[in-house]
Specification:
The protein is mainly beta. The protein contains eleven helices and 55 strands. A hairpin with a 4-residue loop joins strand 8 (about 125-130) and strand 9 (about 135-140). The radius of gyration is 29 Å and the shape is globular.
Length: about 800
């Protein structure tokens, strides 16, 4: 198969230059006296210099008729924002939100985004509505990840006038986690949400294209050299702690923190530990230290606390001579659910289930203690494997020497199908049990088709590794015309079938040697927000799901169950989906469960539920130009998924094959071949295990998309052995911020995947140590060869968003024309 690529205009992002104009620069003003945050803007610093204005409407093409004016200032403790908002309808401002961290941007509000590193990826959001209600978030991965729980100790005040409203903010510099990069230019933006008299108008100082979450378009904030140096400290390690009770019944928190001096110019410091609750903040301990520039070390702490779940702990790095001079602040929520023994299965890693085709000879698990060393030194560990039904002991071992964290195994060569308990008990000198923990594990009866995820994160069918590809919302009749290119059908939510029709549907798919990802619901009411999809799972609903899944679970064409498609858009309760997963997994342990998600928040909310998390990144592509957002947001979302998916889970990717329109009037288009291939191979490099395009019904609107997806599916099939192969140990490819790369070894051949994630031509020497001594590589699907130079160095040209896949052997497959 041949496919023609689109040639893009020179300067792929020229549309951004035309729309957004030149980068805007603001210099922070020095406040000689502290600003009284009252909303009056009557301090001397606000009388200095010109107000910054010229706000543009979202979309970047039109100037806002109702304007906003602001200045940024600083002193030795705070960063200040002063702003004036013109408002001809000041008596009709929208003010509905009155709770901290509520969506104040739905009211008339002002937002202040700060990127203190100037890297256009990580930033802080501070927002306030007219009533002075605060919202703050820490954002990373270009806004994909929101840390809603993050709170800064900042102050805001507003004042309403006859034809305007004013605002003052004071943000502690010590809470912004400054580092060496913070000594240069910062990125920032000021955004206004205007809803007075029913309008919905969004404007910003640095023009934005599709949303306010575009740090790559932020303006520049300048500070005088060196004034931020004292804040260059870092605190790590608050995840390493344990809780104990003393003889008086008081709770003691023990742990360690690592402190780094990143170049503050001051050596002496003091750590102040504070416990924060709704009533008060109290100092519970201090530690003195000394670290000069570039030094770091760990400091132990022992703190008396009032037990709360969770515990909010604040650590301040301060000047020991003047504790009010704060260099750095770190706040953490500590989970104090006290579990003296933690037991986690390593293998089997999936659902704590052993499948007949696994041929597993032993159970591998880890045990971690949250007890003081003195207790462990006087104890022994007993490990047992018992039948759950009659507590028959199949294995027992007593271990005299106990480590805080260790891995153990239990042989299971002759173990029959049943439910078992793995039990860990701590014994004192008398042999009595002082602490214990147990977890159930199942060994299943064999059935005709078993699907599971192995310890390496690979989907297996009866032990054979599978890499599914397919289409959303395609009928069996249409799929039959394309069955040679794809493996599976992803059922559309508008095609929920009763059990009888579902069997007919699966029978049709079975005849094509294909597989289906199905909803476990007998009718569409289970996934309808109108019918209360957000509420908890009702007993009657659970009975219906159990019956439906029981009736279909042994069908040969069933691959997996999809629990929800974009659940956040339907306000689906996390607890509801969690319970549905438990029900489906209990009735059918032979098929994994999938959830398709798109938003950053849904990744955090739902990532711990399914066996397969399926991100769906939707990017508007501009007519006559490129993507409206950086295309590497695709791989950044995959980084987020890999970071938060539950242990043992994998991710498939839902690939965009249609025109994602914008809320503004900017014209958009469907992604072209180069962009589709780029997004696909970003997912390959980030270790996606399945690939489905959304969706078939859009092909009639975008005929080229069918040829594109067909080509890419054929290319995936050609490269399947390489994609599912493990990454060679000690892989040391050349890494850059704009080039993604990965090497794989399948049998005796090497494959190198390289993706240019930006819309600029690049020529970067790529060093691949495993290719040392080889002279030639074949470029997959391009019909060309390249010569290697030096110590396995690839010299090639990467056009905007280009993908090159290199192989040490020629492959016969589809060719790009």
């Amino acid at each position: 198969m041949r496919i023609a690529t689109w040639i893009l205009a020179v300067g792929y992002f020229c549309i951004f230059e035309n729309v957004l104009g030149q980068e805007r620069v603001v210099e922070a003003l020095k406040a000689e006296q502290p600003v009284v945050v009252d909303g009056n803007l009557n301090e001397e610093v606000w009388k200095t210099g010109e107000w910054s204005t010229g706000f543009m409407l979202l979309g970047g093409e039109k100037k806002a008729q109702v304007q906003t004016f602001f200045k940024v200032a600083y002193d030795d403790r705070y960063l200040y924002l002063g702003a004036k908002m013109d408002e001809p309808n000041a008596k009709k401002l929208r003010i509905f939100e009155f709770q901290r961290d509520s969506p104040v941007y739905q009211d008339d509000a002002l937002e202040f985004m700060i990127d203190p590193y100037g890297e256009h990826t990580d930033y802080y959001q501070f927002a306030s509505n007219v009533a002075g209600i605060q919202l703050d978030e820490e954002r990373s991965l270009s806004g994909l990840l929101h840390e809603f729980e993050w709170n800064a100790n900042w102050i805001v005040a507003t004042k309403l006038g006859a034809k305007d409203w004013t605002l003052e903010m004071a943000i502690p510099l010590a809470g912004l986690r400054l580092n060496e990069r913070s000594l240069g230019n910062w990125g920032f933006n000021v955004m206004r949400d205007r809803h007075a008299e029913g309008v919905n108008e969004y404007s910003s100082y640095a023009p934005m294209m599709g949303s306010f979450d575009e740090p790559e378009h932020f303006a520049i904030l300048k500070f005088p050299p060196g004034i931020l140096k004292k804040y260059l400290w870092k605190v790590n390690g608050l995840s390493e702690y344990f809780l104990e009770s003393n003889s008086k019944g008081e709770w003691i928190l023990k742990g360690k923190v690592e402190v780094q001096n990143l170049g503050s110019g001051q050596c002496d410091f003091q750590l102040i530990f504070k416990q924060i609750d709704q009533k008060a903040t109290q100092v519970i301990g201090t530690v003195d230290g000394k670290l000069c520039d570039g030094e770091h070390r760990e400091y132990l702490f022992t703190l008396p606390i009032e037990k709360q779940v969770p515990l909010k702990l604040e650590v301040q790095v301060v000047d020991p001579k003047n504790p009010q001079n704060i260099f750095h602040t770190e706040t953490r929520l500590l989970d104090l659910d006290y579990e003296p023994i933690g037991l986690s299965f390593i293998d089997p890693s999936y659902r704590n289930v052993i499948y007949s085709a696994q041929n597993l000879s032993e159970i591998k698990f880890s045990i971690r203690f949250t007890l003081v060393p003195e207790v462990l030194e006087e104890s022994q560990l007993r490990i047992q494997l018992l039948s759950k039904s009659n507590e028959k002991i199949h294995y027992e071992s007593v271990i005299p020497q106990i480590a805080l964290d260790n891995i153990y195994t239990i042989p299971i060569k002759n173990l029959g199908p049943d439910n078992y308990l793995v039990k860990a008990e701590l014994l004192d000198k008398k042999g009595e049990v002082t602490y214990s923990q147990e977890k159930m594990i199942k060994k299943l009866q064999p059935i005709l088709y078993e699907w599971w995820i192995d310890i390496n994160g690979k989907l297996r069918k009866n032990g054979e590794e599978v890499m599914p590809t397919g289409l959303f919302r395609i009928s069996p009749e249409e799929f039959a015309k394309r069955k040679s290119d794809y493996l599976g059908i992803f059922q559309g939510r508008d095609n929920i079938l009763n059990e009888v029709n579902a069997k007919v549907y699966l029978d049709q798919i079975q005849k094509m040697d294909a597989y289906a990802v199905m909803y476990p619901y007998p009718n569409s009411s289970f996934i309808s927000s109108i019918n209360g999809f957000g509420h908890s799972l009702l007993d009657m609903e659970e009975i219906e799901i159990r019956k439906y899944v029981q009736g279909l679970r042994r069908h040969p064409a069933l691959m997996a169950w999809v629990l929800a498609f974009l659940p956040s858009s339907e306000s689906v309760s996390v607890q509801r989906l969690k319970r549905i997963y438990e029900v489906v997994a209990d009735v059918d342990p032979f098929h994994p469960c999938v959830i398709v998600i798109s938003s950053n928040r849904s990744i955090l909310d739902y990532s711990q539920i399914p066996d397969i998390l399926m991100p769906f990144m939707r990017i508007p592509f501009l007519e006559g130009g490129g993507p409206s957002k950086p295309l590497n947001l695709v791989s950044r979302q995959f980084d987020l998924v890999n970071r938060y998916k539950k242990r043992g889970a994998v991710f498939w990717t839902c690939l965009q094959a249609y025109n994602q329109e914008m809320l503004t009037e900017v014209a958009t288009r469907a992604p072209n071949f180069v962009e589709c291939r780029n997004m696909l191979y970003q997912s390959v490099i980030k270790n996606a295990e399945g690939f489905f395009w959304y969706h078939f019904e859009q092909f009639k609107n975008f005929p080229a998309m069918e040829k594109i997806t067909q080509f890419l599916a054929q290319e995936l099939k050609l490269l399947q052995s390489a994609i599912i192969a493990p990454t060679p140990p000690n892989e040391q490819l050349t890494k850059t911020s704009t080039i993604l790369s990965m090497s794989k070894k399948a049998e005796d051949d090497y494959y190198i995947f390289v993706v240019n994630t930006v819309g600029e031509k690049q020529e970067i020497p790529l060093k691949v140590p495993v290719l040392k001594g080889r002279k030639t590589l074949y470029v997959v699907s391009e019909g060309r060869e390249i010569s290697l130079t030096g110590e396995g160095i690839i010299n090639d040209t990467f056009e905007p968003f280009a993908v090159h896949v290199y192989s040490t052997k020629p492959l016969s497959g589809p060719t790009i024309q």
